[in-house]
Design brief:
682 residues; 10 helices; alpha+beta; eight-stranded parallel barrel
């Protein structure tokens, strides 16, 4: 990429200046090939909307950067930006990362004649704003519009301004004149047909996918779904396995352009107000289909992934599925070798071989199963899966925090889940579409806590009392927590049982997939104590932790933070960054990295820095020289003495609300600020 500066001088005085990043490339798309700069690169990517669960459509550069982190991790080289022009930063980061982009007008859906001066101007502005971005390879003149004259009009306007790029239409059947090619939105095995109806004779595929809800599950050998009503994650995986295998293994050249629908779930008038076809949830939790794509798109990067980790309690079939790009996988359950499978042994519903999928029949025992998949070369994955159906018993779990667990409702048996509490996972084990409640981020006081899983407690027919005994062999007291959806008044059964407010609050998702507030109450019990809780028809879950073993902070996506961090991560916007005194007094160095991870600037040995504002202004000038005047998200690492982070660790109330605990780069102590910096010309 190059910086092009256009300057206006009057009588020797610089009056104005514009900096523009450009790139030079040539490319060609045919029905069986795509080349860029003479190199064959089949376009493989996904559709991306400008939204996420926490910011809605008002996404900032940090959100966009995290979305493109997923694009890179998946090995994608193409993103279709739907269904409107996106923020300038989106195109800038695509330029910097070398990701090909399709951008489109706001013309979507079956509609009447919408040609008017305002629409014309919108299309003109899109092209004039974006045409210098080297990442933009295609203009899309509309999506699924049955009124052909609309698309023809937008295509004419686009081509009159920038005739250097192909203009296409994303079609669900229409074939409007005036575009260079037609791409298709096809959903075989979802809105009709079979999951093996792919690619249906089409070479350019702008959309294809299937829904998958992370709290809805069925046996792997089942292939049932009802769109907008019953969208189990296992069916999504099954449908995408076949598509991805065709795209990467069977006949890649037949489909030189493919954009999967979707990268992330979005709000929509579909399943409980969501479109669940994303490879990641609305909050950013990767689904199983994320890993089968990654296994295929990045074959040189070893990957072993046990499917369904968040489907933690099962009944019915006793099978385990693994995604991996290794030649063979060996599975063990509770230390017992269950055999090996070779790549190519797995077949889908029509008998076709699907690579990178390994299926192990009838391997789970009744009880707690520690499942390990490994490739024999040091790459492995582990999952803990409970099975409650008919099977030989698993070894007794002597590490359980509680014993004698009993439910007061025969229709709602309770199970102790001896797995550390995970962000974004289902709250209840009921996986029939009637209990889609999930955790969001996990508060620090629950780090390493385990939980008692039941069916949805807010269903009046399932509400149950619970009783259990703190395991007498525990070497410390136990903290018992009750997390419940915030009520106008705290239910009496919680306070009369001696539980008090931790003042730790946050949000989790209800059965309607809405983020709602929760409260967290706690009581400490000694080993051998009995706990009895009445319950009521509200969403609640009971958790148990060793007293005093909780930590601060957690990360979304189910990754637990370490107990004793050597660094803290702050996400902040703006030039005024407030650092807790304990950290500021122990700073050894400051380093700034650009979007590609390249070191931009380093200051060594700056100690006792309390107010960093002036130094960050210096960084802005440095960043401007590197990137022109585009706003960019940077990583700023502040390394400090371990004693500084230890001091802050002991005083968690000093942490900003956005702080996350973690280790610094290379295991060194450090603080990372994800910080969008706009250009400063002086």
């Amino acid at each position: 990429l190059y910086n092009v500066y256009t300057e206006v001088w009057v009588d020797g005085v610089l009056k104005d200046m514009v900096a523009q990043r450009i790139g030079l490339r040539y490319y060609s798309l045919t029905t069986n090939n795509f080349t860029i700069n003479g190199v064959q690169k089949f376009l493989r990517g996904a559709c991306l909307h400008e939204e996420n669960e926490y910011k809605g459509n008002a996404v900032d550069s940090l959100t966009v950067k995290s979305q493109f982190d997923a694009v890179q991790d998946l090995g994608m080289n193409y993103v279709r930006l739907v269904h409107y022009p996106h923020p300038e930063f989106t195109y800038t980061i695509a330029d910097e990362l070398g990701i090909a982009i399709s951008t489109e007008t706001g013309d979507w859906g079956s509609g009447p004649d919408i040609r008017n001066a305002d629409r014309d101007n919108n299309v003109k502005e899109m092209v004039k704003q974006k045409f210098n971005h080297p990442s933009v390879l295609f203009w899309c003149a509309g999506n699924e519009d049955s009124f052909a004259a609309n698309v023809t009009r937008w295509a004419f306007i686009i081509d009159s301004i920038d005739g250097s790029k192909p203009v296409y239409f994303a079609s669900n059947g229409a074939n409007p004149p005036g575009v260079d090619f037609i791409a298709v939105n096809i959903y075989g095995g979802w809105y009709g047909g079979a999951l093996t109806d792919f690619p249906q004779g089409d070479h350019y595929i702008s959309e294809s996918g299937a829904g998958g809800v992370v709290a809805s599950h069925q046996d792997y050998k089942s292939a049932t779904w009802t769109y907008d009503t019953w969208e189990p994650e296992e069916y999504q995986s099954l449908a995408n396995e076949f598509k991805f295998n065709y795209l990467f293994n069977v006949n890649p050249a037949y489909v030189p352009l493919y954009s999967h629908w979707l990268l992330f779930d979005i709000c929509d008038t579909k399943y409980k107000g969501m479109n669940s076809k994303g490879m990641l949830t609305y909050a950013g939790l990767p689904k199983d289909c994320y890993y089968i794509w990654k296994a295929k798109a990045r074959p040189a990067t070893p990957l072993v992934h046990i499917c369904g980790k968040h489907w933690y309690l099962r009944t019915g079939e006793r099978d385990v599925k693994v995604y991996s790009n290794r030649a063979s996988i060996t599975l063990s359950v509770n230390g017992i070798n269950k055999g090996s499978k070779s790549d190519g042994a797995y077949t889908t519903t029509n008998g076709s071989v699907v690579n990178d999928v390994f299926f192990f029949d009838t391997v789970l025992s009744r009880g707690r199963n520690v499942v390990i998949a490994q490739d024999g070369a040091g790459n492995n994955d582990t999952a803990v899966i409970y099975f409650t159906g008919t099977a030989p018993d698993a070894p007794a779990d002597n590490s359980e925090y509680i014993t004698n667990l009993a439910s007061g409702n025969a229709n709602n048996p309770a199970y102790f889940i001896n797995i550390p509490l995970q962000a974004q996972w289902p709250v209840y084990y009921q996986c029939d579409g009637n209990a889609d409640n999930t955790f969001d981020s996990i508060p620090g006081v629950l780090t390493n806590a385990r939980w008692i899983a039941a069916r949805r407690q807010s269903d009046a027919a399932l509400t149950t009392s619970l009783s259990f005994r703190i395991n007498a062999v525990m070497t410390a007291d136990a903290d018992v927590f009750i997390m419940f959806t915030r009520q106008a008044s705290v239910p009496a059964w919680i306070t009369t049982a001696g539980f008090t407010n931790t003042n730790s609050t946050g949000r989790w998702r209800d059965n309607a997939l809405n983020l709602v507030g929760y409260q967290l109450f706690k009581r400490t019990y000694t080993p051998g104590s009995t706990v009895s809780l009445s319950g009521s028809a509200i969403d609640f879950v009971v958790m148990v932790n060793r007293a005093g073993s909780s930590g601060i902070g957690s990360t979304p996506g189910g990754t637990l933070m370490p107990m004793k961090p050597s660094s803290f991560t702050f996400k902040t916007i703006g030039s005024n960054i407030i650092v807790p005194r304990e950290i500021a007094s122990g700073i050894n160095s400051i380093a700034v990295y650009n979007l590609s991870g390249k070191l931009v600037r380093r200051i060594i040995g700056r100690k006792n820095i309390i107010n960093l504002k002036k130094r960050f202004q210096r960084f802005q000038r440095c960043v401007y020289r590197a990137f022109g005047n585009h706003a960019c998200a940077l990583t700023i690492t502040i390394s400090c003495r371990p004693a500084a982070t230890e001091a802050l660790w002991r005083r968690p109330e000093r942490l900003p609300a956005s702080a996350e605990a973690g280790y610094g780069e290379g295991g060194r102590a450090g603080i990372c600020f994800k910080y969008p910096v706009s250009g400063v010309r002086n």
